[in-house]
Amino acid sequence: MGRIGETDLLDRLAPNGRGTWIVQLGLGLLATALAIGLRTAIDSVAPAAGPFVLGFPAILMATLFGRWQAGLLTGVLTLLYSWYFVLPVRHSMALKSPDETARLVLAAVNYLAVIVIAELFRRAVRRASDERDREISERDLFLEEFDHRVKNNFTLVAALLDMQRRRARDAETQVALSSALARVESIARAHRHLYRGAASSPGAVDMAVYLDELSAALAEALFLRGAITLECACDHGAMPRDRAVSIGLIVNELVTNAAKHAFAGRDSGRIEVRFAAIPSGWKLVVRDDGVGMPANARPRRDGGLGQKLIDGFVRQARGTTTTETGPDGTVVTVVLEA
Questions:
Q1: Which of 45, 192, 262, 325 has its CA at 20 to 30 Å from residue 95's CA atom?
Q2: pTM here?
């Protein structure tokens, strides 16, 4: 359980109930010693002033941290100390007048009232803490079950797409299914990072870890080993899940496009993915040193599915895109709002 009992030290110092009375005795004696120490300091300035006053905070502290037994022990000891050492007939249990007797009885009643109130408060805090811990445990169990089910669903969808891709005889169909499979896997990675970092940053994804893993998976899926390499350098930063998924899908589309089209007729090349913080937000850069787009090349009127997807993902991520291309390669920059 999280913060056991909040102020209840017995759960920490005497787990499983072993040695409870020893801890309570120690807390009672410690609170009494503190009260007597303060009483001694006060007596050096104002002897016999407020003989029972310091018992109240000592009893309160002992009860909150060591339950009513420690509070009762502290109350009895401080009462006896004040009676014997502080009241006018010092070093004696004698009482000079009925007023002093009434004063002593009233102090004892007030001490008991403080113990009762402090114990009731401690129990209320304990119940609230236990209820909170129970709700947290139930939530964690639900999230774990939900995470397990979602991962199974992603795995099932990916397996079906991969199976259809392997069975497809048409090359264009295989390419389309491969692209769909890569998109599903990108969303699945964002989901994994969401639940991996849920304790420290609920609902957020560490972009450096996410994009590093995404780049490694793309390099393996697109066979970017050896001659054609994929490099990733990203700043750490927490992004909301939905926005992280959109950014990951942008990277997925841009890297896939570069791997397919940037190195036509070449055996080597490099693709770079950069994600960095800027004053206005974040900047994503995907660069390749490929052949670039021909100067007379015209985009398709319908824009193509890949370009439509990139535009849609950029809008979802609240960003704007610029593209620079030439014989030395292509650079796509996506500037994202903070």
A1: 45
A2: 0.56
